[in-house]
Amino acid sequence: MNTSHAWLAGLWFVTLAALALACAIGCAWLAVRNRRMARELQAERLRARAIENVLDVWQWRSDESHTLVELRPPQGAMSSTWSAAAPGQRLWDQFPAADAAALRACLDAQAALHDVRAQLRLADGSMAPCRLRALAVTDDTGRFAGYVGTARVSGASLSAASDTGPAPADRASDIERESFSYTVSHDLRAPIRVVEGFTKILKEDYGRLLDRIGNDHLDRVLGAAARMNCMIDALLALSQLSTQPLARQPVNLSQLAQYIAEDLRRESPQRRVHIEIEPDLQVLGDPTLLRVVLENLLGNAWKYTDKRRDPHIAFFRDVHKTGMVFTVRDNGAGFDMRFADRLFGVFQRLHSAAEFQGTGVGLASVRRIVRRHGGDIWAEGEVDKGASFYFTLGVEADSP
User: Are 324 and 283 contacting, i.e. CB atoms less than 8 angstroms apart?
Assistant: First the structure.
């Protein structure tokens, strides 16, 4: 009997072990399957987001009461023409249809919308002709949950002008800039998002299986994608400088420079930089744009003196030059004068990104702003002995 009991106990133990092993294998398989499905779902979401980001139409979503809960303009559109009223309105109020009764009938029947002629109500109260497309969606229980749709605005409506509107040449230029902004924002960003998204998935899911060098490669890819996004942002900001209205008024450049110097010190409190700013430098110009000029010039001087033991920056009017010439001078890294013509080009850098960070767009923005003010900008420098940037603004204000 003892032998029989021992045999039964052994059999019971083996059975339990087999069941435990089967459960462990099953759990492992489910974990792998769920993880694979999660990766596929994340990849699908990234693809869907990329598709949304290249659509040249308005995207909207409504709830079961036909109230708009989301309203997105074409991505990359920067003109105020594209500004619409905020979500929260009924669909037929935001998009008044040519045949309102037919639109309401479709909505009541929860039917799909196919190129329904309507108007898009913009934030300034004006209307833009558009065509609506939409599909009804349901929730987890199968109940109607609203619509997901698009609105394609007629291109002609964007260039149509009132009697007091801009000249045809200006409208054509605006449309060209709008197209450029859209292309830069979407056609360049879309593949970057894909690269960045899948690299993050690779690092999160397989980073532990890679050695230090492999993970370093992934970090380099992510870093390059981030730098590319920064360059796109800088390029879009540069394109906007030509569209922003120029409002001339008295501007105290000395005061602006003091504000910028204080900001630089707050951002890097560990640095001790001697900054000299000549007082009461008055000009006529756009204060917002002129601040961009000084932020770039003083910011560059601050950046390129980082490796100096006694960094020195000065902003003053150069009395040795003809006319009202302003100078930003530093004793930083300097540059080779043989390459001075590249300083103000887009993405033209005389120092590597490893030495000094930057997008290579700042000085191009400065030159564009200065020339819009009727002035000019040039530079002199010597390697390891600093640089001087000179600029004029065309019209200067009388000193107080």
Answer: yes
